[in-house]
Each structure stands twice: as structure tokens, then as C-alpha cells.
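Input chain follows. Return C-alpha cells only.
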Amino acid sequence: MIRLATVSPCYNEEEVLRHSVERMTALFERMMAEGLISNDSMMVFVNDGSRDRTWQMIEELHRENKYVRGINLSRNVGHQNAIFAGMMTARNWADAVITIDADLQDDIECIPQMVRHFEEGNDIVYGVKVSRQADPFMKRMTAMAFYKLQNSMGVESVYNHADFRLMSKRALDMLADYKETNLYLRGLIPQIGLRSTTVDDVISERYAGASKYTLKKMLRLAFNGITAFSVKPMHAIFFLGVLFLIVAFFIGLYVIHALITRSAVPGWSSLILSVWLVGGFIILSIGIAGLYIGNIYNEVKHRPLYHIQEILD
């Protein structure tokens, strides 16, 4: 039997927390009865600077439930950093760690399958979404578009996988060697290279409350994922510049021809259009280059990703 830890980042999750703990407790006890996990397995909740009673509830649940442990971060550091903080702490407590969001929209019935795959010798088991009908239409469409864009940019990742996964202690020790500030775990973990497999994850509706992953946060994660693992946007800018030079050359020939044949028509429309078009692409290019420079700026500072204020162990 393995000692299992689940890690769940929490940001203003007081509406779902108690219900989630009840479901996870029932699953834990069933898995213990089946001999899949040991009696000292645990569920770890990482409070990511919540503004509601999330941490107070974690403290209450810790006193009531022997499986519940808590990590209180000193401030809000974001979903990826909160997951990383939980994994790096829990790897010292367990043989394997499963990350799953506190709302339990991911299928918790996948967890026994993940443990079995781990016992078969897999160090990483990814939960891959096979159905997202419970998600809003816009979220489904933007997620699919992002995964396709990510693949076209050459980012190595597991298609339709978010952050529901099992990792062995060995895999987590290897992940700890990555010192990146701009964390994008979905692209980082496949680079570890250990034996891995997948399970089918059917997304369910949220029990209560609303998702804390806003459009702004999703866009930030998408830009971070692409700029942290692919230089193709910069290559595209270079070839776009070459294309503009070629077009400019032919426009120059046309202008010379119009002057020689005296067929040039006075006007400013084409000039203004050209200025705005080229200016727009220049600004876009500078912006993309700025994303990379910004990432470099963040990396060279080597600031800590998080600070743990308190641990309930």
C-alpha cells in the first residue's frame, strides 16, 4: 500500500470545501478498505491568500478529520505556484501526490485508477479530459483553441490535460530541480521524461460557487505557457518582416512605374493605410518580444515563488 497525498489549491473556496472533504474522505476510506492506500494517507489544502473563511475552514476540518492537512501561504501567488508549493511540501509526506482542484470538478473516481497505474510502475499519471460538457460553452471553445495553438507552437504537453495528475516522489524530486519563476506545469512536467500514462477524466458541474479562474487568468496562463516553452512567435515575426520587405519592394516598383507613366493619382488613403498597417505590426512585434524580455526579467531575479506562513501537520 502506498501513502497518498492529494494537493488542492484553494482561493475563496468556503462554499465547496466541506462538501469536497466529505467526498474525498469517503473515497479515501473505500480505497483503504480495498488495500490501495495506507491509513496515514492525507488530503492537503493550500490556502492561496483567500479573502473569505477558507483558511478558518481548513483549520476546523483539520481538527475534525484526521486526513486533512493545510498549508497557508502568506499571500496570493496564483494557481500554478500554489500547486507547486503543495507538491513540494507533500512530497516529504507521501509516496505519491495527486493534484486536484478543490471544487472536485475532475472525476475523483480516476484516483483509484491513478494509484493502480502508479503501482504498475508509472511515475506520472495524467488526467485527460474526455468530456467537458459541464463547462460553459465559451470555456470549452477557448480551451480547445488554446491546446491546438500550443501544439502548433511546439510546446510539449498532454492534449486536454490541465493540472489533475499523479506524480511519484521521484518525479517530484526531479521537478524540484527546475528553478523557473514563470511556472507552467503542464509544459514542464512532460520534460521530466519518466514513464507515464493517462486516465479518462469526465468533468462534472461545480457543486457551488463560481470558478475563480477568470478569463484574464486563463489568458495570462496561455501567454506564459507559450512564451516559456516556444520561440516560434519570434521566428514568425522575422518571416513576417521579410514578407513586408518583399511587398514593399513590389510597391516601390509600382510607384516608379506610376511616376514614369504619369498615372499616379494624388491621395493619401493608401499612404495612411500603409502607415497604420505597418505601424500595427511593428507594435505587435515589439509587444511579443517584450513578453520574452519580461520573462527573462522575472527569471534573473530568482525571487521565491511563495512563502509558507503556517502548516497544519
